[in-house]
Give the backbone structure.
Amino acid sequence: MNEENPQSEYSQQIAREKWEPAEGMRPLPWLNTILLGAMLMWGAFYITISPTGVESSYGDRRTLSTLGAPNSSATAAAKQVDGKQIYIGNCAACHQATGLGLAGVFPPLVNSEWVVESPVVLTNILLHGIQGQIKVKGMSYQGVMPAWNSLSDAEIAAVMSYIRSDWGNKAAPITEDDVKKQRELTKARTEPYKNEEEIKSGT
Ligand code: HEC
């Protein structure tokens, strides 16, 4: 070892080091290649045989009725609009998600004669609103219910069918066509109903 030359000792230290591992090229085992190829071919085959453009087949062949869409006898258009969503978005603030309303302020929809009896009267209430006195399940209310005529026929049909069939209510759904007809019949009305007689008059 040359003690006068520290550099020599240093290079000897370097010489003792192992080589840095280097990245090389190794071919993929042929078995893997075959497996990959087979999977690709199966994938392409599966995509080819799978039906496409079929609206009700969500990949696993479930249909709308399997998913339990409510009001299956309502029109197709009304079925596409989700009545519960419309209810939560527009009505639940006052009538509550439970449909029970707020005692003395917002009347209940659960078991309400206005909800489960005449479809025509219910449609009119939604189309024109109420501003005055109304009795619901024996209790008097004196509030303001805005008109919902900015909602489409299908949306009004869906929300009515929803409130007629949830919370134990069991009335038949109302179709988009029914709403359309009623909107046309009562188009002369520009103000909300002021009392029960007006609501029941059907105009
Ligand atoms: C701003 C609060 C408010 C909203 C939002 C509202 N309502 Fe009402 N609704 C009332 C009030 C208040 C009355 C009672 C009117 C009165 O006292 O003159 C009423 C009455 C009713 C009635 C008749 C009485 C009954 O309880 O059966 C129905 C049916 C009804 N609403 C359905 C709806 C539906 C469906 C929606 C959503 C599209 C809705 N309401 C949104 C406040 C509201």
User: Anything to note?
Assistant: The first strand starts at residue 130 and ends at 136. DSSP finds ten helices and two strands in the chain. The two ends are 115 Å apart (CA to CA). Residues 82 and 158 are 6 Å apart (CA to CA).
